[in-house]
Structure formats: structure tokens, C-alpha cells
Design goal:
six-stranded antiparallel beta sheet; 27 strands; eight-stranded mixed beta barrel; alpha+beta; about 50% helix; disordered C terminus; rod-shaped; about 25% strand
């Protein structure tokens, strides 16, 4: 089984290591103790052997001395000489009692036993061990012999008178008492055994009867040398010395000194027990210590692991709380630094991901996230949400003409005004470019249109940049949740649609209406059909005459496009021209208009009708470098002089890229094409630019002309514009003339030409030719404009 936890592995390792050390130490110590015990027993046996030999020697000397004393006794010798056996027996008994001898024997010169204390009533018999008395005729000899089945240490001393007359044999019994005495001296077990032809027999021993039998079974073969061996007695090993004492042909007496190894090792048992106790105690201490060490290591590691897990899940708030001076403390400190570094970097990343670096407002991602969360809260009940989508009017002009630095200043100022105006909004974001979005939470009773008006009012005040006022407006689209969308994407889309509706209708703000969506779908459908309209010749040009206010002569017309849709009927240009401009399709449309207008102008020339034809071109057309060559080719193709073509451009048309527009206009002017500024007064062009343009005509926007009869301030503006155009050497044209009052005012102000429903509505080419010929090329009979003509004229333009 693999141990997974580091703490458990540390504990197991240290405990196993200590157990191994303890086992090895115990084994070595136990082996040493065993060797020491055996050595000690061997030494004790050697000592015991010497003590045993000394004791036998002392007993022999004692017996010899007593025997000599007895042999020198006169009365004893006299009794021997007189063969007084009674006295001999009495002396032997008395003397033996005095010295403690167990056997007293008198043997005559024939080797016959005369008196014997062991068998006092027995008959005379030959002495059993004649070698004992023959070997020592003048001195004394000693040996261990067996008498009557008992072992004795015997000495024989001759009785001299002065010649030997017999031998006194005296002896101590080798019995259990002697064995116990020797054990007291040597602290060894002592046994005497007889190796007779009938087998081993114990003569005396300190052992019990059972152990004596075991001793006999373990006795080695006969040997004249001292034998050292280990014998098992009563299931206990004994180290023994077998010492041969006396040997004759029939029997041999040996002394066995032995000591139990178990008893010798008993002295080391306490040490072993102590070792076991110490091993157990050290084992417990090692476990406790291992646990402490393991916890000391693993706890901070667990803390570090938990901190790393928190960091992994993006929680950088809680610090790594490990205060140590070792490597783990250094690691914790490094982890804290890493946590702080990651937190700072993530904060910067989040700021870059969710904040607009220019305005410090939320960006599109954060707004979308906030909106989705807000919608989720709304779905759970509570407050309602509304978003206001807005972009800046004329911001592109400011950005392109004054530079991106000024544009950035405008965006920052707008963001500040938004925060000041709707600071309590849930989220204010810059979605990109000049597009902003505001998320407002409310109870449903709040009037968000009032909020939109406040924003518009806040942005109406010019933005100052280095003392120069910059005028930017805004258009705001409003979408409520859940009426205008139940999800964020739908709400944003509908607010965007409402914003473009407000921009298109110039109402400042607009609340989303499904009609806007339908209209946009229709517009998209129209754009899809517009290409087919060009290919299938569904477009038409109508022409509205320009009348001289000085001579009433009709010498010019303006070409106005119409779309005769096979299913929708007549589609006004206001429904497809703006979207064609947005999609870029306006270029193809303009080319078609110019080609058709030039073709018609050539046709009229061939019919004898000389009319200057004005054609509106867009800002995108001025970006087309090939426009002059295209116009020149058309004029040449239809044999039309360049002066009969007038291209009308709006102020905004050349303000988008004045330098490039200037080059295109210069090349057109070099061709001889007449150029006119259309809708003057609605844009924000600088007079310095106008003065540089090669234009010959200035058309005052109909929004001024239609109100000049009722508004003196507008009338003043018109008069000033006419004077300005004349001072610049330009011909001034008023468009949108719809009644005689305006006609007469323009004539009195010195305006050069007029165009409008008062003179004629836009007519088809043939109808226009008939109208001009019917009026002989002049506008002689002005009539009061009707309400119908006024309203139709407003829509047609």
C-alpha cells in the first residue's frame, strides 16, 4: 500500500529507522552478553578446577599427617606387634573420629586387612588396592578409590618399628557433603561419577536425582584429559569440565564441574530488560518526536498548499500566514510576493479587460457582464433596468479635422459630464469610438426620457480645447427591460436601433419602438433590391427647374432621383439614400445619376434645349480619385460641354477629408464643371475652407428659406448669406421656395436664383421640356403656393 500523506511517511520512516536500530543494537548486545556469559562461566570453571584440585590436595595432606601421627604412636605399634586386633580397631576408631576420617583401615605386610572401621566385624581379607600400599613403602600415597560402593580419598602410610610392620589407610568419603562444600567454594555444580564396566554412576553430586540422570546421559567417552563440553541438563545448557581423578583398568572416577549458562546469563537479563524498556521508551519518544517533526513540516506545507489553492482560484486577499526563519519561511515569503505580484498583474489585466483606458469608464465587456447580471436580478424580481445608448454627433469631423488628441479630449470631457449627470447609474461605459452606454436601475416609475434630456443638455455646452469651443451633440436610444428585450444582446440591439432612429429623425433621443426594427428590416430589404433596381432600370431622374430671380429665365435644373419600385410603388430617396451612403453603394448610385443626367443634358441639347443640370454627389464620391476622369468621359461621350454640368456637394462632403476633396474638386474645376455648395448653413464648415474651394455657386438650405418669411432672425441670416456669397464671388441659389412672399423677399435681397415648388415640382424630362416650352423658358406668372404643394415639396427633397 502506497502511503500518500507526507506526515504519515515521515512518521513511518523515523519509527521504522529507530526500530531497525533498536533491533540491531539489541541483537548485538544480546550476542555480546551471551559471549560474556560463556566466557565468564569458562573462567569460573577454570577457577573452580584449581580450587577443586587444591581442596583435594589439602585433604590428602591432612590425611597423611594424621596417618603419620597414628603410625608413630607407640601403643598402636605395640598393639600391632602383639596382634592385639581389639586395640588396633579401637585406636583406629578413636583416631578417625578425632580427625573426621570416614574410613580407617590397618593392612599388615601381607596386604591383609586386619582392622576396618567400615566393616568392623568382617573377616580378614586382602586389601582392595594393593598398589596404594606398594607404591609407598617408606612415605605415603593418596588416591580416590571406591570402597563398598562409595568413593573415598585414601592415603596409605607405613607403620615403622623401625621396619614396616603394616600400613595405616585413612580416607575421607567423597559424598554429597563434599560436593556441596566444593560448590560453596567454587559456586559451581560439582558431581563425582564412576565410569565402571556397568556404565556411568553418580557417586556424589549437588544435583537432584533427575538432573543426575541427565548428567550421566551427557557424559563424554572415557578420556585421560580434562574435557570441556556443553551438556544439556533439565533443558538447560551447562558448560562443564570433566576432570579425571583416578583411573584403573576397571573403573575411573571423574569430577564434573559445571555451571548453567542460563544462570550465568541471568545476570544479563536485567540489562536485557533495561534495553527492552529503553527500546520501548525510545520507540514511544521517536513516535512522538516523529509526529511532532512531521507536523512541524507538514502543517506549514499544508498552509502553503491551501494558499496556493486559493491563489489558483483567484483569491489573493488572505496572505500566507507562515512565520518561520527556515526554508519553508522563505518559501512562504516568496509565495506572498508571488500572490501580490499576481494580484497586481490580474488587477491591471482586469482593468485593461474591463475598463476603457482613455476615459476610465467601463468598456463593452464589463457593460455586457453588468447588464447580464442586472437582467438576471430583474428576472428574480426587484428593480427594472433601462439602457441608454448614445453616440456623439459631429465627433468624426472633430477627430479628423483637429486630430485624435482633440478627439480624445472630447471623449474624456463627455465621460466626465456623463458621470456628473447620471452619476447614480449602475454602469456607464464607453463601448468604443464615440459610442457610450448607460445602465440605469429604477422602480419603473422613473422618466428616463428626462434623463436623456439632461444628458443632451449637458452635452450642448461647447467643449473647450485650448480656448477653442467644440460643439458636439448626441443622439440617444432608450430600451427598457423586459419590454424591449429579455436578454442583453436584444436590449443592446434595440437601443442601438432607437439611437439611429433618433439620429435619423434628429429628435435627440428615441425610445425603442418595434416599428424602428420593422423600418430597418425594410431598409435592409430595400438595399438588397437597390442593386437590382439599377440593373433593371427602375430608377428615374426627375428635374426641378432653377429660375433666375433677376430675369425669371429658366436656364438650369437639378436632377432628383426617384425609384419606381414594382411592388412598393414610388420610393422616396430619403428611404434609401442614407443607407446607400452607409453601405458604400452610393458610389454606384452616383455614377448612374451622373451618367443619366449627362445623357439627358445631351439629349436636350440635341432637341435645342440648353439646360445646366445639377447633380448631388456625396462625401464618398469626393474620395473617388477617378471621378474627374469618369465625368470627363461621360461629357465627351454625350457631347456635353462641361459648363452644363453642375456638381453639388454638401459642406460635410468635403469636411471629412478636406485635402483629398480639394484635389478632386480642383481637377473637376479644371475640366470646366461647375461646382456648388449645397445645403449651406446646416454644416459646420469653415469659411477659410470655402474660400479655397473652386466653387461658383452657393445654395441656401431650404430650412432657412421656408421660415424666412415668418422669422426675422432667419431672414437676417439669409440676407447675410446672400451677401457673403456675393462677396466671395459666388452665385447664390435659394432652394425650397414655395410661395410668392419668399419669392419676392429673395428678389428684394438680391438672391440670384430660386428653386422650389412655387415655380415647379420635379418633372420627368419630357414633362419638363413641355413646361419650359409652354412658359417660353421663363417663369412669368407666379401663383400663391398651396398647402399641398408645400407639403409635397418638403417630402420630395
Amino acid at each position: 500500500m502506497r502511503i500518500q500523506r507526507l506526515q504519515t511517511r515521515i512518521i513511518v520512516f523515523f519509527v521504522a529507522l529507530l526500530v531497525l536500530v533498536q533491533v540491531l543494537a539489541f541483537t548485538f548486545v544480546n550476542a555480546a552478553n551471551s559471549r560474556n556469559a560463556q566466557t565468564k562461566v569458562a573462567e569460573e570453571l577454570n577457577i573452580g578446577r584449581r580450587v577443586f584440585a587444591r581442596q583435594l590436595e589439602q585433604n590428602a595432606e591432612k590425611l597423611k599427617l594424621s596417618a603419620r601421627v597414628l603410625a608413630a604412636d607407640f601403643a598402636f605399634r605395640e598393639a600391632i606387634a602383639t596382634h592385639d586386633t581389639g586395640t588396633i580397631a579401637s585406636v583406629l576408631a578413636n583416631h578417625g573420629a578425632r580427625i573426621g576420617a570416614d574410613a580407617m583401615v590397618f593392612v599388615d605386610l601381607d596386604g591383609t586387612v586386619i582392622s576396618d572401621t567400615l566393616r568392623p566385624q568382617s573377616e580378614a581379607r586382602p586389601f582392595e588396592y594393593p598398589a596404594l600400599i606398594k607404591a609407598n613403602k617408606n612415605g605415603g600415597s593418596a588416591s580416590l578409590e571406591v570402597l563398598d560402593g562409595r568413593a573415598f580419598q585414601l592415603v596409605a602410610v607405613p607403620v615403622l618399628a623401625p621396619l614396616p610392620i603394616g600400613w595405616v589407610v585413612m580416607g575421607f568419603a567423597v559424598d554429597d557433603t563434599l560436593a556441596r562444600d566444593l560448590r560453596q567454594l567454587t559456586e559451581l555444580e560439582v558431581s563425582f561419577a564412576l565410569d565402571a564396566p556397568a556404565g556411568w554412576r553418580v557417586l556424589a553430586s549437588t544435583l537432584s536425582k533427575e538432573d543426575q540422570q541427565a548428567l550421566l546421559e551427557a557424559m563424554p567417552p572415557r578420556s585421560s584429559e580434562v574435557t570441556r563440553l556443553v551438556m544439556n541438563i533439565a533443558n538447560d545448557d551447562h558448560q562443564a569440565l570433566v576432570i579425571p581423578l583416578d583411573d584403573n583398568d576397571d573403573a575411573r572416577i571423574v569430577a564434573v564441574l559445571h555451571r548453567s549458562l542460563g544462570s550465568a546469563l541471568a545476570a544479563f537479563e536485567r540489562l536485557r530488560f533495561t534495553l527492552i524498556v529503553l527500546a520501548g521508551f525510545s520507540l514511544v519518544l521517536s513516535i512522538v518526536g516523529s509526529v511532532a517533526v512531521a507536523r512541524n513540516i507538514t502543517r506549514p506545507l499544508e498552509t502553503l498548499a491551501n494558499a496556493a489553492a486559493r491563489i489558483e482560484h483567484g483569491d489573493y486577499v488572505a496572505p500566507v500566514n507562515v512565520q518561520r526563519a527556515d526554508e519553508i519561511g522563505v518559501l512562504a515569503s516568496s509565495l506572498n510576493h508571488m500572490r501580490g505580484g499576481i494580484a497586481d498583474r490580474e488587477k491591471r489585466i482586469l482593468k485593461l479587460a474591463y475598463e476603457d483606458p482613455l476615459t476610465d469608464l467601463a468598456n463593452r465587456s464589463r457593460f455586457n457582464n453588468t447588464l447580464e447580471q442586472a437582467i438576471a436580478q430583474c428576472n428574480q424580481g426587484g428593480v427594472r433596468r433601462t439602457i441608454l445608448m448614445m453616440d456623439l454627433d459631429r465627433f468624426k469631423y472633430v477627430n479628423d479635422t483637429l486630430g485624435h488628441g482633440v478627439g480624445d479630449h472630447v471623449l474624456r470631457e463627455v465621460s466626465l459630464r456623463l458621470q456628473h449627470t447620471v452619476g447614480d447609474a449602475e454602469c456607464i461605459a464607453r463601448l468604443g469610438g464615440d459610442e457610450f452606454a448607460i445602465l440605469v436601475n429604477h422602480t419603473g416609475q422613473a422618466d428616463l426620457t428626462e434623463t436623456a434630456r439632461q444628458i443632451i443638455t449637458a452635452l450642448e455646452m461647447p467643449i473647450l480645447y485650448e480656448g477653442q469651443p467644440l460643439d458636439v451633440g448626441t443622439s440617444i436610444g432608450i430600451a427598457h427591460h423586459p419590454e424591449h428585450g429579455r436578454d442583453a444582446q436584444t436590449l443592446l440591439r434595440n437601443a442601438d436601433i432607437a439611437m439611429y432612429a433618433a439620429k435619423r429623425n434628429k429628435t435627440g433621443f428615441a425610445v425603442y419602438d418595434p416599428h424602428y426594427d420593422t423600418s430597418q428590416q425594410e431598409h435592409l430589404s430595400l438595399l438588397g433590391e437597390l442593386r437590382r433596381a439599377v440593373e433593371q432600370n427602375e430608377l428615374r431622374l426627375h428635374y426641378q427647374p432653377k429660375v433666375s430671380l433677376h430675369s425669371a429665365h429658366v436656364s438650369a435644373v437639378e436632377a432628383l432621383i426617384r425609384w419606381e419600385h414594382p411592388a412598393r410603388g414610388l420610393v422616396p430617396p430619403s428611404q434609401f439614400i442614407p443607407f446607400a451612403e452607409h453601405t458604400g453603394y452610393i458610389k454606384l448610385l452616383t455614377r448612374w445619376v451622373i451618367r443619366e443626367a449627362v445623357r439627358q443634358c445631351g439629349a436636350w441639347l440635341r432637341e435645342g434645349l440648353t439646360l445646366q443640370v445639377s447633380v448631388n454627389i456625396s462625401a464618398r464620391d469626393l474620395m473617388n480619385r477617378d471621378l474627374p476622369e469618369h465625368v470627363a468621359a461621360l461629357l465627351a461621350e454625350h457631347d456635353v460641354t462641361p459648363g452644363l454640368l453642375c456638381l453639388e456637394i454638401t459642406e460635410s462632403g468635403f469636411m471629412e477629408d478636406p485635402a483629398h476633396a480639394q484635389k478632386v474638386l480642383d481637377r473637376l474645376a479644371e475640366l470646366g464643371v461647375k461646382l456648388s455648395i449645397d445645403d449651406y448653413g446646416t454644416g459646420y464648415s469653415s469659411l477659410s475652407y470655402i474660400m479655397k474651394l473652386p466653387v461658383q455657386e452657393l445654395k441656401i438650405d431650404q430650412s432657412f428659406i421656408s421660415r424666412m418669411a415668418t422669422d426675422t432672425e432667419i431672414s437676417t441670416i439669409v440676407r447675410s448669406t446672400i451677401d457673403l456669397g456675393h462677396n466671395l464671388g459666388l452665385q447664390v441659389v435659394a432652394e425650397g421656395v414655395e410661395d410668392s412672399a419668399v419669392w419676392n423677399m429673395l428678389r428684394s435681397l438680391g438672391c440670384d436664383e430660386a428653386q422650389g415648388y412655387y415655380m415647379s415640382k420635379p418633372l420627368e424630362p419630357a414633362a419638363l421640356a413641355r413646361w419650359i416650352r409652354a412658359n417660353h423658358g421663363t417663369f412669368e406668372a407666379p401663383q400663391p403656393a398651396t398647402d399641398t404643394a408645400r407639403s409635397v415639396g418638403a417630402q420630395a427633397r
